[in-house]
Amino acid sequence: LHCGISYNRLGNKEEAFKMAKRSLEIRLQVLGEHDDTAQSYNNLAVYYSALGNKEEAMKHGQKGLQIRQKVLGENHVDTARSYFNLANYYGELGNKEEALNCDQKALQIRLNLLGEYH
Q1: What is the pLDDT averaged over residues 43-69?
Q2: Rg (Cα) of the chain, in Å, rounded?
């Protein structure tokens, strides 16, 4: 995982993408449905988006959200983060209504957990 981040910082998105895919494979094998696995799905979604594959970004972002909903529940800051990420992918695909819906869900979760002035 950290190698992928380092490659990304160096501007090598292709190698970062490979590392993110490998990280997901390992976490699926070792951890199964776990928050760390959800994070790997989200990381891979970011790389897919950066490489221009918005549909795969959406697919991986949705899988990360599904795992977080199952493992962490709906009212968790990481679940809110997954909704926020999905809002970005929906926006990139031109689905403004669904982007707004995801943004509103993310905001509501954060308000419920952290309050209005956090």
Answers
A1: 93
A2: 14
